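>> received
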Amino acid sequence: MPGAAAPAYAASHGDATRVTAPQNIVQDPSTMLAYAIVFFIVALLAALFGFGGIAAGAAGIAKILFVLFIVLALASFALGLWRHRGS
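>> returned
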């Protein structure tokens, strides 16, 4: 099985082959904001049709995701400014 050991061998022996991270990692921070908007719309639709429990749950998830997005966006902005001034 030479194919199975090739990435580990290449990484440990300085070969030109690079071992990369999995491609299923979310790399776009706006995806989190999109999820928050989707949950907000679900909460509005559920409230419109009278599903109070579902609306409250979706609204809670939307709030958490939105706050998390804002915190990560501000941290990213601050780190970008800090790195830009350092170079």
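>> The CA atoms of residues 39 and 86 lie 39 Å apart.
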